[in-house]
Amino acid sequence: MTGYKKFTTLRQPALHHDFGSNHHFSSDKGLIGQFLTCMLGFVAVLLLATPAQAHSAPTPYGPTNPFASEGLIPDNLLCGEGYRIVDTDLCTHGSDDLMPSRGRPIDDDVLVNQPLMPKAILCDGDGRSGKRVQVMYVRTEDRADRYAQSLATIRMEAMATDKIFNVSAQETGGYRHIRFVTDARCHIDVLNIVIPPAMNASFRATILALKAQGYDRPDRKYLMFVDADVYCGMATVVNDTKPSADNLTNLVTGYARMDSRCWQSDSIAHELVHVLGGVQFSAPHATGGWHCVDQFDLMCYSDEPYYPVMQHICPANQANRLDCGHDDYYHTDPQPDSYLATHWNVANSEYLSPLEALEVVEPIVNLFARTGDPGVMTPSTITITAQISNSESILAKVEFYDGPTLLEVDTTSPYLYTWQGVTSGTHMITAKAYDDMGEFATSSILTLIVPKAPSPDFNNSEDKKPLVSQLYLPLILQ
Asked: How far apart, in whole angstroms, are the C-alpha atoms of residue 5 and residue 63?
């Protein structure tokens, strides 16, 4: 089994039978009384071994803070098999946590397909109007500020999450991109949020701290990268199966929290699906606890309160995809009268866009070299220039290499390196151009052959040729 595993201390069966006391049976009870007592003890032992108890046991993979479940109370009317977050009208199913096998093959001979890292996100309108997913870096006042060093990671994992949603949509013939809040250059907007000390100790406390700062817009889903180690992930859920646009998931504020050990696209996608309404209790393969049983799928694992047996219906290469059968919560074009045509379908969320094309254009980089003197001798001076065009990215730096050896890092335009004292031999020159999100592209190899010093009669030779001519090579994206 892959995916998530949830650990919670809520709703544990209470066992009051005292196994440690010595029972003295009177003669009038006889063998029947002794038999009933033994059977009661046997049943109690079975209860101690139920899945609910086993999953509730402390483990190194569960929430690390004893207050992680603070402020969650059962509310079947509002939340179904979930919990209401005290002092709010929000629901959650509790904490999610990853299986210890995360990131390793499901079986020795089965590898899980990872989504390709995208180069850009969908630029949708002005990046702010309408219903959007707002990404946040969240820390407490008493914790060091790691916003600057975390920004590239947060953006890249959010982009990879978008890739999961879109690749999964393409399996049903459509497209879906997350409608992130973005800046003027179509970069994911990541807010730097500071909350009071201890307000990261529970999901409820963090939500209340955000609401106090005004982050409770009904047209926003808040994706919180919390600099803490309490949970893997946790999210709000909405108990509503209406297939129409007035489904509550489109109308209410949502919150998803990922702590630093789970700042990965699979964790983010899992929590965001919860916020967008999956997996409802009535789904064909629902667990009854907001997940699914038809492995392999990002939303599938055996959870409380029923701990159903998993059904290995889908192939392992679907483990990092949404709705492996496309019949429980995610399909861009379900058949009429099917479950997803008549019940809530996350693919219809107004926080996702069905647009096909990415509007951000990849950069084009030309790499060339100049000597300035066709008859230059070794040791020579060569200027290597990386010209970058057709790019909407903000360039951070360009690195110049001779084979594996880093020659220079240039952070300002024009991006060039004046290489002095070049020795004779063959030099394999490449350049890496980085943008402000940590993405980079590597140029083709520019081969420079620098001869040894010429013989005395070299200048009289009619075969004299330039050492280096001006070359333009296209960029090869990695």
From this structure: 11
Residue 339 CB burial class (10 angstroms; 0-12, 13-18, ≥19) = buried
**pLDDT tier at 67 (50, 70, 90 boundaries)?**
low
How is the chain split into domains, by residue range?
A: 57-353, 364-476
| CATH number of the structural domain 364-476 | 2.60.40.10
Residue with tokens 């943008």: 435
Are the C-beta atoms of 204 and 72 separated by less than 8 Å?
Answer: yes
Task: Quote the CA–CA distance of 209 and 392 in Å, as a whole number.
Answer: 36
Is the C-alpha dihedral spanning 152, 156, 157, 158 positive or negative?
A: positive
The answer to whether 199 and 213 have CB atoms below 8 angstroms apart is no
- With both helix axes pointing from N to C terminus, report the angle between 265-275 and 147-170 in degrees, rounded to the nearest 10: 70
The confidence score (pLDDT) of residue 389 equals: 66
Residues 327-374 pLDDT 10s? 999 999 999 999 999 999 999 999 999 987 554 455 566 677 776 554
pLDDT in tens, 210-260: 999 999 999 999 999 999 999 999 999 999 999 999 999 999 999 999 999
Residue 275, classed as helix, strand or coil, is helix
Nearest CA to 261 out of 230, 235, 223 is that of 230
DSSP string, 370-394: E-S-TT--SSEEEEEEEEEES--S-
Q: Residue written as tokens 């199913």?
A: 93
Which pLDDT score, from 0 to 100, does residue 364 have?
62
Q: Are the CB atoms for 287 and 293 separated by under 8 Å?
A: yes
Under a CB-based contact definition with an 8 Å cutoff, are residues 193 and 327 in contact?
A: no
